[in-house]
Amino acid sequence: MLSEGMYMVMTSKDGPVAGTYTRVVADDAMRNLRILYPGTRVWVVESNAAEIQQKDLEVLACRIDAEITTAHRVMFEGVVQMKFVQRQTLRGLINSRIFGNQKVSQGEAWRFELAQSHAKFARDANISDHRVRFTF
Predict the structure, then answer these.
(1) What's this model's pTM, rounded to 2 decimal places?
(2) Is 134:94 a contact under the CB 8 Å cutoff?
(3) How far is CA 94 from CA 78, 87, 88, 103, 124, in A?
């Protein structure tokens, strides 16, 4: 049953940060968060889907989601593009919400080109707030 046998990655700084389906992915996330945030206690606890959903956590579905990557944010003000290297994080924890209209739009992703694509789509489609679930 999907509601049992999940794991939650916790930190002393932020509390619960992510859910996983397997212990292997949870251990990868724990190890990489320790690299990103030295001095912060990171641990894994058993959990279930209901608890992870209640806490509104991202679920790291595979080992790639637990890799360290750079989050890129692209913002358009009209046609003027601004780009930011947001932060180092786990790939599965990158902000997956896009929003935009003709005046301002924003997208974030693990690659600059993908963040740019999200921001352009949000601007052109007048997306007020949308969560991008899957990107390749």
Answers:
(1) 0.79
(2) no
(3) 24, 9, 9, 24, 22
